[in-house]
Amino acid sequence: MRIANIELNDFPLLLAPMEDVSDPPFRALCKKHGADLMYTEFISSEGLIRSADKSVEKLDIYDYERPIGIQIFGDKIQSMREAAAIAEEAGPELIDINYGCPVKKVACKGAGAGILQDLPKMQKMTAEIVKQVNLPVTVKTRLGWDEKTIRIVEVARRLQDVGIQALTIHGRTRKQMYKGVADWTKIAEVRNHPDIHIPIFGNGDIDSPQKALEYRNKYGVDGIMIGRAAIGYPWIFNEIKHFFRTGETLPPPSLRERVEAAREHLEFSVEWKGERKGIYEMRRHYTNYFRGIPHFKPFRIRLVTSETRGEIMEILAEVENSFIGEMSV
Can you give the pLDDT at residue 23? Predict the structure, then answer.
């Protein structure tokens, strides 16, 4: 399938843009293990136009990540236009607009999912961004602000009318945040509507190859975006692809593979951010990489308190040697 001129697999698996997660080191592992299309962390339009270090840093992309989209958010149309132009200069394959972030500091200011309360503004902002850039523009959004304001088919039609090339829908409302069950029936209503001809990607609750296949067949989406299930488990993309092809479940990653993934992640994190920041920001990932490993807590405590790359590498070697003989995971 295609998004404008971007060629993807027949049923692409997308990595969701996740704040404080979807940075280049994490994306590198997800790409290695089968992600077809990835996005940067969402980037503040106000931060970009003011050249804030944190926002500008998020523009970093690498050739091996392609195709990749840069995602921006904001509540001011002119700022979003300017931010889109800056993002385009960074050389991604597409620009993505975040109309789905539910967190209070974003949504309650009218950005992210907050714009779902003002569909005419959403449509106007999107139109201006489409006119501003020469790249394909896509959108990620939610079903609505709350259960009483679900107008996702109208949202899709409005956005398609002003020129977006694909739409990803998270099957929850803003009010739900990340609680409850994602409602894919509403996503299917959009995908199957006779007026909708752009690709529709579903997002929410996909955490296994079996569920991915079930939802692909049941709801007819053009692809699936995976978020939280990939944190500490980049293998999920290839596991899903293997299950689609064969109907068989791949064995989970071995302990050696988990250790190697953590090493790769740490190395790139330090290379990209510098040793101090890279080590600090890597700390949030160790629990995820070694989830389910018994008696791991003492190692985790040492990993999140160590302050040099060499020391962490030694601890990871200890992890591998301590369990390798007694575990087949």
Answer: 94
Q: Which helix (H) or strand (E) holds 15?
A: strand 13-15
DSSP state of 75: S
42, two tokens:
């969402």
As a whole number of angstroms, the distance between CA 329 and CA 324 comes to 9
Residue recorded with tokens 């961004």: 129
Note if 101 is an active site residue: yes
Rounded to the nearest angstrom, the gap between the alpha carbon of residue 307 and the centroid of all alpha carbons in its chain is 29
Whole-number Å distance between alpha carbons of 321 and 304: 19
Q: Which of these, 33, 88, 99, lies nearest to 61 by C-alpha position? A: 88
DSSP E strand boundaries for 90-157: 94-99, 137-142
Q: Which residue is catalytic, options 28, 101, 125, 129?
A: 101
Question: Could you give the CA distance from residue 290 to residue 284 in angstroms, rounded to a whole number?
Answer: 12
Helix, strand, coil abundance in the chain, percent, nearest 5: 50, 15, 35
In tens, the pLDDT along 10-48 reads: 999 999 999 989 999 999 999 999 999 999 999 999 999
Output the pTM of the full model: 0.93
What the chain holds in terms of domains, given with CATH numbers, is 2-246 (3.20.20.70), 255-323 (1.10.1200)
- Span 284-309, pLDDT tens digits: 899 999 988 888 899 999 999 999 99
235-264 average pLDDT score? 96
Measured distance CA(259)–CA(146) in Å, rounded: 42
Element (H, E) at 81: helix 77-89
Q: Looking up tokens 């069950």, which residue turns up?
A: 181
